[in-house]
Structure formats: C-alpha cells, structure tokens
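Key idea: predict the complex, not the pieces.
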Amino acid sequence: MTIDATDRRIIAATAGGLPLVPRPYAEVAGWIGLTEEEVLARVATLQVAGVIRRVALAPNHYALGMTANGMSVWDVEDAVVDEIGPKIGALDFVSHCYRRPRALPVWPYNLFAMLHGRTKSEVEAKRAKVAALLGPACRGSDILYSTRILKKTGMHLSGEG
Amino acid sequence: MKRAALPPDALDAADRAILNRLQDPLPITAQPFAEPATALGTTETELIDRIARLREIGAITRFGPFYDAEAMGGAFCLCAMEVPEARFDEVVTLVNALPEVAHNYERGHRLNMWFVLACERPEGIARAAARIERETGLQVLCFPKEKEFFIGFRVTA
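Result:
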C-alpha cells in the first residue's frame, strides 16, 4: 500500500506505543489534529495491508527470564524449505524465522531461526526440537550465540513520504 | 531495555495473566482495553494501571502497534564478516560509525561479526556494504531476507 503523509503522522505518533488511557486512539487523534474515527479507520487499513502486524503488548523477554538466545541456522533442501519454514516459525520459542541465501562455501545455511530459552541448555533442547521437525530435509546446522552486543540502536525512519 | 531477569516476586498472578493475554492481538476499537479487561475479570482502569506498572518495571517494552518497517519503505539486510581477532576492535569502530548499522553483534563463529543494515531505500544496502568493504578491506556477506515465516513467538509469564 502507499503510505501517505497522514499515515506517517499516525505511525510517528504511535511508534513508541499507544497512550495508556481508555480511548488511546482519541488521544493520538488529538495530538495530530484528526478525529478518533479517522485514526481508527487508518490503523485498521494499515493492519489489513500488513504495515501493522498487530496491536499488542511487547514483553521484555529478558525481564521475564528468557535470557538465553541463539541464532540457529540450517541447510535445508530448497525443494522443501518453504513448506517446512512455517512450522518452525510457528514454534513459540522462535522469535524470527527467515529463508536467506547461502554464501558457499563458507555458509551453507538457508534457514535462520532465532531460539530463546531461560538457559543455554534449554536453547540447545529447543534446537533439537527444530532438528527433529526438519528431519532428513536438513543436511547440516549450527547455532551462533552472541558473545557481545557491539551496537544496538532503534530504526530511524524519516517522517517524509 | 533491561536485559536481566526480574526478581521472581516482581509479578503477581494478575500481572502474569495480563502478560499472557495481551501478547495476542487486540481488536482495533475505540476502547481496546475493554474486551481484555472483561476476559481477565478486571476493570479497564485497573488493566491500564497494571500495564503502566509493567512498563515501569521493565516487564514489557511497549504496548501498541507492531510496525513492519519494510512495509513502510525501509530496507534491511543481515550481514556478516570474518574479522581477524587482532583487528576486531578497529573493525568494530569502522563498522559502527556507519549510521546504517542498526545492530551489531559479536558471535562465536568463523563469521564473528553480524550486523543489520537499515536504510531508507533498497539501494542504500549495497552502498553501505561496499563502503564497509572499502574501509575495512574485508568481505561483507549479505544475507537478505528472501522469505519470512509466520512468527508464533510468545513468552509465558
């Protein structure tokens, strides 16, 4: 969809979250000079178009004890990767799941799944679950743990269309 | 964002029920808290107060729309490099200096530096990767997302 200037004002106003009041969209509307109905209609359209994935609470998984994570990577047969991928993504301990290109010979893996757990051994147990789901379609795998965060910033998008 | 676990007594049963219920999408209605409040057997005001407190103590990072940055016109790419140990700190400085580098992690692998490039336009990705190669003399491997699989991630509180 094409996002117009009004959509961008709504996105900018809600990028940090919705105000915690009974009528949050009315409050957002007040900030940017729209009506509550306009904001609701546009938010609904943005959701249908996939620009908004959902309106929900984002848990801090670290605070809730999920402090271990590993980037698991898999070399899955091209013919079946798109069929199996959704099953891996749907697991409740997988936070990101993508098909990406290989970079042979250094990097034979085409399926990436970020695994989360309370401990590293829990993450390893989850890795085994993924391996079992993939079965013989998977020819090799690895898991990369982060040893240091070198940089972490938010995404900066300009307000211009 | 706090990266340490909260003490076990930081949350009561009502907090945990809220955390578990509100990871599911809320309806887009004028009063989005009304329906979950009823489902949780509480009031709208009590629910809102508790969400505010969960945010204060760092149990949640935010409440609101989850935007797909790519759908808004941004371009992203995961990249990796094999950086010799002796040059690691120098290369970190060079890579992190680019505003396009959003996240950068050291990982335990031969490819030991993994970062995400975030650009306003797709052509910015190749440009930023080429600049890093020029400035570091090292190869940048690009792993663009070819397909995203549905994410069912949930944290049970």
